[in-house]
């Protein structure tokens, strides 16, 4: 992981990716991902891969090809980058071609629409005009769409704009039909009785003639028609028929009938005199107005027929009037609409150029809106954005690839190593080996032992030589150690134990100024030296160091798991692991819910505890098995303890796991017997260990 963060490729055969949380100098956290082209961090890693990549034989002689990385490897990476650059260029051409083809599809639709608009409105209209108008229409294209009739009317308006004149519309005054209704209600509800003559009631013409004759004979008894005398009884009979109250009611009804008009009429311009693009609205308004007029005429007819019915045979009866009055607000609105059309017509007539301009604009907007409705602009835009994003990505990859090639080429040109510094470090690591470096070419170095070519370098010598180069190369090419994160993995691998102190001294002295330093090791002696120097003394290094270990556990199904955890406190503060081992066994014996992992590891821990304690109690020679009598008197118990601690710590198999909880209980009981025996024979030592927990 650290090597990849420093710029190395992920090894072949390893899949997946990782994300690291990095904190910069300003204490700001950011993510570094292994699957992108992020700039490598200033990290140098010494591990087995570094040894393999930087140590090789050449020229048919024992020699070491030491560079920042092997020249052949660097050239391989350059060729790989160049092939990648070629693929990127090919991909760019392909995307640009697809983008252009996609753009031409829309351009063709725009050109066709612009051609239609030019044919309709003229004025050398082209795609540039359309492009300038398009953004405004896209905001809400449905608002600009017209139906076929509207389009045809606008076309006619353009063709005949100069053929139309101003018009005049005179709004008629409506009769006060609320008053008529009120008066009608009053008359229909009135009644007047008389001594009616049945023959006259059945003959209205005769009745009207006699009504006139009676009025002519008010002052005489002689008949003006025949000259004879008129009997008084006849006059009395006629006066009873034509009662004054009833005649008054009749006269009032006739008066109201004479006042109520039979209809209402108005004169408006013919539709042909209206501009074509206004005709749809004009026709609609005229129809609505006529519907209202018919309602009004129907009301008038109802009033007149009710009054007529009253006169004919119902003066002595009250009649009801049920009628629904039309809304005068509708009447006013219809006339407002007509007057608005009239005003528009006259304004356009007085300014024909404005009419033509507005008609052209509406038609242009309409055809552009049709284009927007038929062509998926949103999808097209997303596709173009996708092409642009892809091209931008390729551009970044191309730039990164080019820069990487330049960096690798510069690294090949600058790659060199100081022979004097290498020999100085080798003298510290391998003082008895008499290994020296001699340059053959600029980048090739032969290793000699006592002045003779070292024909067979051991793994330990190869590790020492490569580690020496690693330390020298940390500040190669003007790189500052203060800006570099260093990771060293098992630097004494394959080295004898007498080299531990020299390697530790080199790390302690030469890497103390590194920005961050990580050291991992399987060697307990090196671990104790580093822990004591870094964690406890803090003599050469900054404070707040972290210590970790790899915790390996076995779950109840027998699967092994590993994870990095903080170094346990007892391992951190003590030079020996003795106290820590005791704490693990103590907690295991006291835990009612112990895990199979604790039971699985307990034999090995118990053996280490017994080796340390018994060896201290009886330093004289002999296997720890022979010293178990210091804790147990019974021979059988000593054999059981030895069998569990020695055999079980080496011969455990996954099948043992299937024995739990029996295996856990058995392991707990044996460990507890040992701790109880220790407490019994050496209470002060036992209590002191307990205080450490």
> Could you describe the largest sheet, including whether it forms a barrel?
4 strands, antiparallel
- The coarse silhouette is elongated
Instruction: Report Rg.
Output: 58 Å
Percent helix range: 55-70%
The averaged pLDDT comes out at 80
Q: CATH architecture of the largest domain, please? A: 3-Layer(aba) Sandwich
Regions with little confidence, pLDDT below 50 for 5+ residues: 58-69
Provide tags for this entry:
11 strands; single chain; 4 domains; Rossmann fold; 693 residues
Q: What secondary-structure arrangement, pairings included, does this model have?
A:
Layout: H1 2-5, E1 19-23, E2 29-33, E3 43-46, H2 48-54, E4 63-64, H3 71-121, H4 127-138, H5 148-160, H6 177-189, H7 198-201, H8 204-216, H9 232-241, H10 244-259, H11 276-313, H12 328-350, H13 352-374, H14 377-414, H15 419-429, E5 435-439, E6 445-449, E7 452-453, H16 459-473, E8 485-489, H17 500-510, E9 516-520, H18 524-537, E10 548-554, E11 560-566, H19 569-573, H20 578-590, H21 596-617, H22 635-651, H23 654-657, H24 662-681, H25 683-692
Parallel strand pairs: 3-8, 8-9
Antiparallel strand pairs: 1-2, 4-6, 5-6, 6-7, 10-11
Helix pairs in contact: 3-4, 3-13, 3-14, 4-13, 5-11, 5-13, 6-10, 6-11, 10-11, 11-12, 12-13, 15-16, 17-18, 20-21, 20-24, 21-22, 21-24, 24-25
